[in-house]
Amino acid sequence: MTDAHISVRDLTMAYGSRVIQRDLTFDINHGDIFVIMGGSGCGKSTLLKHLLGLIEPSQGDILYAGESFVHATPERRDSMRRGWGITYQSGGLFSAMSLAENIELPLQLYTDYSASDRADIIAYKLALVGLDGYQHFYPSEISGGMRKRAALARAIALEPDILFFDEPSAGLDPISSSLLDELIQQLQASIGATVVMVTHELPSIFSIATNSVYLDADSKTMIAYGDPKHLRDHSDQAIVRQFLTRTASHPAKEHT
């Protein structure tokens, strides 16, 4: 009996005739903090874009709770997407909007809440990410770490059951990165969401990830799947062990 929240089946990703990855088959279970990892140029962000429906697969299928997203109608895709929260490397906040206005936008688009109810939700979401009282600040007026947290508050505005992150710690110092990891873990536990992350940061991978897939640029397919701690210690693929045991002074080989 599977507990798959997201199922990737025989997926091939390509730009024209150039294959990025082929034969990807794996499950992301309900409640996973799932990491997509691999050297640079292996297709991590491309896989994320496929999961989000921003790029159509050359072959294969992606299923959410057993339902095909690839073969769904545009209307059904939109409906499925409303259960997702997404944050981008830059945070993706609208610079001309205050934090409150950024968080209010999905509430205005997809709910019938009154202005008063929306204000309560905004205050609650900002408090959850440690930004209580920052409603009227603009993105340019707060730090990079605070912008990441504000983007997370917007991502959880509609109580999503899946959260997607593209390099959430990019550009953050180690302390801010660690605090963001803790916040993601706490939010996952409190709202019960499945988390899917693209990251190469080992502290993040080992502190919060429960499952992972490793994409290899040379063979153009996945060569490891499972708990990253187990893969670090027991993978039969040397490149995976090297990636997961690299240090700042001895970085793992990165594929371009």
From TrEMBL:
Keyword terms of this UniProt record: ATP-binding, Nucleotide-binding, Transport
The keyword Transport is assigned to this record: yes
All residue ranges annotated as the ABC transporter domain in the record: 6-242
PROSITE patterns xrefs: ABC_TRANSPORTER_1 (PS00211), ABC_TRANSPORTER_2 (PS50893)
Pfam families per record: ABC_tran
Domain of life from the UniProt record: Bacteria
Gene3D superfamilies (alphabetical): P-loop containing nucleotide triphosphate hydrolases
GO molecular function: ATP binding; ATP hydrolysis activity
Record-linked InterPro entries: AAA+_ATPase, ABC_transporter-like_ATP-bd, ABC_transporter-like_CS, P-loop_NTPase
Entry keyword annotation includes Endoplasmic reticulum: no
PANTHER family: PROTEIN TRIGALACTOSYLDIACYLGLYCEROL 3, CHLOROPLASTIC (PTHR43023:SF3)
Protein name: ATP-binding cassette domain-containing protein
Organism in which the protein naturally occurs: Pseudomaricurvus hydrocarbonicus
